[in-house]
Structures are given as C-alpha cells and as structure tokens.
Amino acid sequence: MTITAIEKITVPEFLEMDDFEEGFLYELINGELVKRSSPSTDHQRASRQIFNLLHAFVLEKKLGECFYAPFDVALDEENLVQPDIMFVAAARADIVTENCVEGAPDLVVEILSPGTFKTDRNDKMKLYRRFGVSEYWIADPKNRTIEVYVLQTGDYNLASFAVENGEVVSTVLLGLSIPVQQVFANG
C-alpha cells in the first residue's frame, strides 16, 4: 500500500505499507504517519542503561516484562507507536501478543532527541494519558535529566525529577530508584 497524500489511515493500512524510506522509523499517531530519524548514540546509550536497570529490577521481583524499540504498541485503530522502553505488569500479560503489545503498557519511557522532542513531550504524552499509561518517563540526554509523570485523576503529574547527581523513583515499580548519572554515563 502506498500513501501519496497526507491522509488519516488505520493501523491495518499502516501495517500494509511497503514504501517506507530507509533509515527512518515510522509510527501512527491519531491516524497520521509520523516519520523520525534513527536515534543518536547518546539516545541509544541512555536507552540501554534505562532498559538494563528496569529489566533487572522487574526480573528480580518477577513483576512482568520489559520491552524496547522497535516493538509496536497498538493502542487502537489509529495509534501504533514504538516507545523506547516499556513495562507490562504480569497481571496484564494478556496484552502482550506475538507481534506487539495490544493496549497501554503500565510504564513507558521516551528518550528525547532533537527530532522527537515535540512528539514525545506533546503528542505522545497526550496519547499515553488518553489510553491510561500509568507512568510516563521522559529522559533527556542533552540536559541529563529524567522526569517521571504519574497518571492521577486523568492527568499526568510530575512525581519525580532528577538531574545528573540525583535519582528518580517509580510509583508503578515500587522500590525502584534509578541514578540519573548512571543512565547518562558513556559506554
């Protein structure tokens, strides 16, 4: 399937597309195709560190599963996203299918880069809020910060924020604290 004009499409139509430009990643947000560049080295390093820390905690406590991009999250017929990192609680393991997560993960992490700043802070934040993602993290390699937003009474509230020498804590994964300096350490 080829989309030539800017038009809203559905997830099944998106999945049938075969003319994606090489070197870019694609998501479907509110029926609109969103194209972004491949992540930077700093983005990938932060992603690896956060994933390793989350994954180790989740495995040790037997809390569920963690996934990292590229792995689809189908929220509805108009929204198919690939969060950088996500956690699905064991009690909700039924939303993990062979090809994707069908429904809102319990925790999502997006790592900012110049090309995703607006989408991650605005479009995706609104989308995750609308579909009930309980906790949303925004990691910023440039400023070496992590923000943790918790969904309360239908809106996200900043629950934890840390710069390089601090640490953030999770309310979804009780007992988890992540040292920001460790996330943004090179290597």
Q: Which structural traits does this protein have?
A:
tt1808, chain A; 6-stranded mixed beta sheet; disordered N terminus; alpha+beta; 187 residues; 4 helices; 3-stranded mixed beta sheet
Topology, pairings included?
Layout (H helix, E strand, L loop, with lengths): L10 H6 L7 E6 L2 E6 L3 H21 L2 E5 L4 E4 L2 E3 L3 E5 L11 E2 L4 E5 L5 H15 L3 E6 L4 E8 L2 E8 L4 E3 L7 E3 H4 L4
Parallel strand pairs: 4-7, 8-9
Antiparallel strand pairs: 1-2, 3-6, 4-5, 6-8, 9-10, 10-11, 12-13
Describe this structure in words.
The chain is of the alpha+beta class. The chain has a single domain (39-183), classed as tt1808, chain A, CATH 3.90.1570.10. 25% of the residues lie in helices and 34% in strands. It has a 6-stranded mixed β-sheet with strand order 3-6-8-9-10-11, with helices on both faces. A 3-stranded mixed β-sheet has the order 5-4-7, with no helix packed on it. It is globular. Residues 1-5 have low confidence and may be disordered.
